[in-house]
Design brief:
By secondary structure, the protein is α+β, with helices and mostly antiparallel strands. It is built from 4 helices and 30 strands. The chain folds into 3 domains: about 110 residues, Immunoglobulin-like (Sandwich), CATH 2.60.40.730; about 90 residues, Immunoglobulin-like; about 190 residues, Glucose Permease (Domain IIA), CATH 2.70.70. The strands form 7 sheets. Strands 18, 21, 23, 24, 25, 27, 29 and 30 form an 8-stranded antiparallel β-sheet that branches. Strands 1, 2, 3, 4, 5 and 6 form a 6-stranded mixed β-sheet that branches. α2 packs across α3.
């Protein structure tokens, strides 16, 4: 009887021990899998070495799976230090962005280099509820000098819808960005020119913009900014304004065909809705595609730039001008408008289209209202466009030669008759083809500016 009782007690003890072991294992399993006890240290997003102008706040980004709980930031020059931030967060968030500013008072130092000590603790219950800790030391070098920036040479004037050339110097041991910004937000990116620290760019005044101003901007890694305006004489040219009465034969023909091809869901829409789709929605889509393919410019250094005058269609007659602002009416009411951003040329059906200058084909495909559309890059941010072609004789990626036949004229896209829509673009901006068909203009406003600038650079 006693032996039975002993065995029973031993069996009960074994069960209890097993249960305790299961509970312990379960507890450890909970600790390792629960988000409350995550073991990943916070991530401190900041470069290890930074140039700072002391004006622009430094951006510190913190990330953690359980959320940021505590942050301490200290600035030291090796002898003296100051606590810039000590914060315990009551609202726990997984991402925190902190602006770090140089102290205005309480810290005096004449040194040009500092260390930023960053300590971050998360809200995890790991490490005996103390959380995970991350630390980082950032080396800071003070740089309050703006980049050296000045204009070497530029065109005397720019015509609305036209182009000018500018050459300038931008120098800084930590130069970050160099670009030209206009009053309407367009950015032109310059090309390294001739020698180190020198740049050149074509800039363009869109025909749709009433005013034009351009400023060269250079920034460095420390956040210093230098700005210099491009001083030009502005010629506010007036362009033709046309009122076009729409006919049902046109709307039921070419417009309906384009709708069926590009948005068949509108096949049962009214003629006005169809026209607005083609002239506004489809046009905008096609022009954005053109802008995307014609925006890039050279990244490598150039020593100069020369082009023959463009005249893609021999013995052609001009049938529509660049910059024509067209207003469309139907049943006596104005329903839409558009700018004609090219030069329409016509001779005979299927006429040969030539390019007078070497280049690379960057686009050769159907493109809505432009029909079969060909785009060639000639360097220095300059592109030529050929629309309504009946066929292509080159493909994307081909290198074309001077006076090579590249396509034939046609009536594809939004064209009522066989002709060529010829366009010239500078970094995505449609400009006056007439300027690039004029030897004298090209020489005065582009080639001579670059040639003279090289001489001026050599004298420095």
């Amino acid at each position: 009887m006693r032996k039975f009782q002993v065995r029973e007690k031993r069996g009960s003890s074994g069960i209890i021990i097993s249960v305790i072991l299961i509970l312990i294992i379960g507890a450890f399993g909970f600790l390792y899998t629960s988000s409350m006890f995550e073991r990943n240290a916070p991530i401190i997003v900041m470069k290890s070495k930074i140039d700072w102008n002391l004006k622009t706040p430094l951006k510190l980004n913190l990330k953690d799976d359980s959320g940021i709980k505590f942050v301490r930031i200290t600035l030291s020059d090796g002898k003296h230090s100051i606590e810039l931030l000590k914060r315990l967060y009551t609202k726990i968030e997984k991402n925190q962005t902190i602006d770090i500013r140089f102290p205005k008072t309480g810290f005096v130092s004449t040194k040009k280099s500092f260390e930023l000590h960053i300590e971050v603790t998360d809200s995890s219950k790991w490490n005996f509820f103390a959380g995970n800790i991350a630390k980082k030391v950032v080396s800071i070098k003070i740089d309050r000098r703006r980049p050296e920036l000045f204009v070497i040479n530029n065109s005397y004037k720019i015509i609305k819808g036209g182009v000018a050339t500018v050459v300038f110097k931008a120098k800084d041991k930590n130069l970050k960005n160099v670009y030209i910004k206009t009053n309407f937000g367009k950015i032109f990116y310059p090309t390294p020119f001739y020698k180190k620290d020198y740049y050149a760019s074509l800039i363009a005044w869109p025909v749709e913009e009433k005013k034009f101003r351009a400023v060269i901007i250079a920034t460095d890694d420390a956040g210093n900014i230098a700005k210099v305006p491009v001083k030009l004489f502005y010629v506010n040219r007036r362009y033709r304004v046309s009122t076009i009465k729409l006919k049902d034969s046109f709307l039921n023909g070419k417009i309906s065909d384009l709708v069926t091809e590009n948005n068949p869901e509108l096949d049962n829409a009214s003629n006005i809705e169809k026209f607005k789709f083609v002239n506004e929605t489809l046009r905008e889509k096609n022009e954005k595609l053109i802008e995307r393919y014609t925006t890039p410019t050279d990244k490598g250094m150039i020593n100069g730039f020369y082009q023959k005058r463009f005249y893609p269609l021999r013995n052609a007659k001009r049938v529509a001008s660049f910059g024509d602002h067209r207003f469309y009416k139907y049943d006596g009411k104005q329903i839409s408008e558009a700018w004609h951003l090219g030069l329409d040329l016509a001779s005979v059906a299927g006429a040969k289209i030539k390019t007078q200058n070497r280049g690379v084909v960057v686009f050769a495909d159907p493109n809505g209202i432009y029909g079969n559309n060909l785009i060639i890059y000639h360097g220095f941010g300059l592109y030529t466009l050929y629309g309504h072609c009946s066929n292509f004789l080159v493909n994307k990626g081909d290198r074309v030669k001077s006076n090579q036949v590249i396509a034939n004229t046609g009536s594809t896209g939004l064209a009522l008759g066989d002709h060529l829509h010829f366009g010239v673009l500078v970094q995505g901006v449609e400009v006056r083809p007439k300027e690039w068909m004029d030897r004298s203009w090209m020489k005065t406003n582009v080639f001579n500016i670059l040639k003279t600038s090289k001489k001026m650079i050599d004298r420095k």
